[in-house]
Design a protein that fits this description.
Mean pLDDT is about 80; it is low at about 1-10. It contains ten helices and no strands. Helix content is about 70%, strand content about 0%.
Length: about 200
């Protein structure tokens, strides 16, 4: 598939200091705005005003607010997974689950939006890509092609369910659910051997 001229222009200098600064400002503005209202109610002009950048700057970086949201989602997934990578290492699994849950809880409004709005497919795709890499290193008894979608689907469903509960729902319960349904079943199943 060939890139359009606009896509080439947006990507022409992605690591330029000004480009990176405007990208961060736009991402931060969107994060601020979607924590207070649904994406459908956020206009590109709202984003640029919040970011303090001109309207044309937005289109130098992104084709739409959905593309910006996908960029935000990708970064959030990477941040979350960097905290939880040790989840499948026996010596650090519980601590890793606590870090994951604390991060989501500290960014509750954002994660609620990310898991229930237009960014969910981008988040699932990024989770899946990273989960396949984790699966290849984890020594799981499951084939990577099965373990990755199982872990991603399970994480998404559990986190989305948790975020639909009252804010005071015990985090310890979520850690136990993640440990029992995801970590123990993928990394260390009881009495299962495949031939």
């Amino acid at each position: 598939m060939s890139e359009t001229r606009a896509e080439k222009k947006r990507m022409s200098r992605p690591h330029d200091a000004r480009a990176m600064r405007s990208r961060e400002l736009l991402r931060g503005a969107l994060l601020t705005l979607i924590e207070t209202r649904p994406l459908e109610q956020v206009a590109i002009r709202d984003i640029t005003a919040q970011a303090g950048v001109s309207y044309p700057v937005f289109f130098r970086r992104y084709a739409s607010k959905e593309e910006l949201l996908e960029d935000v989602a990708t970064e959030e997934v990477r941040q979350l997974l960097s905290l939880s990578l040790p989840m499948f290492e026996a010596e650090a699994e519980t601590e890793s689950l606590w870090l994951l849950c604390r991060y989501v809880d500290e960014h509750r409004a954002l994660w609620t939006r990310l898991l229930t709005c237009g960014a969910a497919p981008a988040m699932r795709g990024e989770f899946m890509r990273i989960a396949k890499g984790i699966g290849e290193r984890s020594g799981s008894w499951l084939p990577v092609e099965l373990a990755a979608p199982f872990v991603v689907g399970g994480l998404f469903e559990i986190l989305a369910w948790w975020l639909s509960q009252p804010a005071d729902y015990p985090m310890a319960n979520v850690v136990q659910i993640l440990d029992a349904l995801i970590v123990k079943s993928v990394a260390r199943p009881a009495g299962v051997t495949l031939s």
